[in-house]
Amino acid sequence: MASDTPKTARAAFRLLAGPVSLAHLDPGGRPLPTKKDKPKTKAKVLADLQERLWAESTVGGRRRVLLVLQGMDTAGKGGVTEHVVGACGPIGVQYTAFKAPTDEEQQHPFLWRIERKVPGPGIVGVFDRSHYEDVLIVRVHDLVPESEWQGRYDEINAFEAKLVQDGVTIIKCFLHISYDTQRERLLARLNDPDKHWKFHESDIDERGYWGAYVAAYEAALERCNTDAAPWYVIPSDDKDYRNWAVGRLLHETLEAMDLQYPRPKLDRDRLQRRLEPE
Amino acid sequence: MASDTPKTARAAFRLLAGPVSLAHLDPGGRPLPTKKDKPKTKAKVLADLQERLWAESTVGGRRRVLLVLQGMDTAGKGGVTEHVVGACGPIGVQYTAFKAPTDEEQQHPFLWRIERKVPGPGIVGVFDRSHYEDVLIVRVHDLVPESEWQGRYDEINAFEAKLVQDGVTIIKCFLHISYDTQRERLLARLNDPDKHWKFHESDIDERGYWGAYVAAYEAALERCNTDAAPWYVIPSDDKDYRNWAVGRLLHETLEAMDLQYPRPKLDRDRLQRRLEPE
């Protein structure tokens, strides 16, 4: 029924509770129809909301936003960052890409390097990959024993709940692409010499583990889909729709925070007099 | 003579060697006529150059750019960051605002906290205030003895020369506004309740030291105007001209670096075959 159609991105893209089957989630779907926001207006509104969040932190506010981007290679974690978060300007925005852990990082529990990059008050943080890699690539390639990674889902939920309590609004996006779309995008990189630096044969190797990654993602999405920090599934075969959808999510999230510019008490008359030309 | 008119931002805004008198530099001047770049094209070109810089670092390149922004309160350090550096998107951009040093920072030499924020390879870094505060506010308010700050000009020159040797291209911009323009901008903040959070009465107090700041800036500009890391003086009474000018400087600097996408040797045929549908 038309009246059941979700009206918000937070409803439309929210992963339902229960078992997850990626095969039943359409990477080309459009669970929410796009509205034609003028890109410039949209960017200005996002930038304004982000400035309010930053302003709040200058008077002691603790709130911040963490956008977690996960998805298969070529799903568009970088593209979303540029198109959506780029609108907010570099002040008050913090981007972190998590690569294979360094030797130092491997000496510590898996959340150690993550905690160090949690955005501070007033910041919109972006994680391009995240602690979820520790139950994804780690699980697919048996990098730690199952007894160890099996405990991590609960650790992640506890970690995220603590962040939320500390004022972090977490937006976890799974950028969902099809196996065919990944092939097209890898071929496109191969056919554009300016993109060869992004091409690693290991991406093709990893593609060979597609099924194992699907299973690992299904487990992570299902077991870490909490009320405190829910998962959103973003159909990402169409880049424009993907960017629009994540932009809407970020926009709605910031709007729901009811961000107001602080109104410190200023004695305007006296201050104005102090600024009179001598 | 018309033929002597500088054609590049790097020539037009470059501070000449020798004694500096801010009174003889026009904060409303236009030493280089603006060209009408379409803002979107300009942003795309900057973003592309910045991506090349980043790409270079993924194959071992050490080069990076550091944009140092200095100027009186309200000169537009934040505005330049948003309008110019915002065009580059958050990936590969690092913004640092230097406030009054923390207790920990004060336990260390003044360059300690600066060194920790120098952009890594591939990054365009922005310093909103910088080590120059250690010969500006420090000198104006006698925060350390003269015997100490007098030595800092040479320390700064040595520090910057070392950075340049290590692959950092430094663009130091003094955003030059007039005393009247500052008054107008402070009044505008006072008259816009959404901007009250940015208003601090201490800004009016500091304005009382305008002359002392001018002297301190003149010394810093003169003594640290090296070939390795020259100063540029940006007329900043007009915000649009200021943003355009710094954008041109950044653009020319990146262009002069002759940035090329790395071309790793790929066996395209073989890789393409590996991507054939099974």
- Going by helix content, strand content and strand pairing, the class of chain A is alpha/beta
Q: How would you characterize the largest beta sheet of chain A?
A: 5 strands, parallel
Low-confidence parts of chain A lasting 5 or more residues at pLDDT below 50?
none
Overall geometry of chain A comes to: globular
Helix content of chain A: 40-55%
Q: Just name the CATH architecture of chain A.
A: 3-Layer(aba) Sandwich
Please give a structural write-up:
Two copies of one chain form a homodimer. Chain A is an alpha/beta fold and 278 residues long. Chain A has a single domain, classed as P-loop containing nucleotide triphosphate hydrolases (Rossmann fold), CATH 3.40.50.300. In chain A, 43% of the residues lie in helices and 12% in strands. The first copy, chain A, is globular and about 75 Å long. Chain A starts with 8 loop residues before the first helix and ends with a helix. The model of chain A has no long low-confidence stretch (mean pLDDT 94). The interface between A and B is large, with 44 and 45 residues.
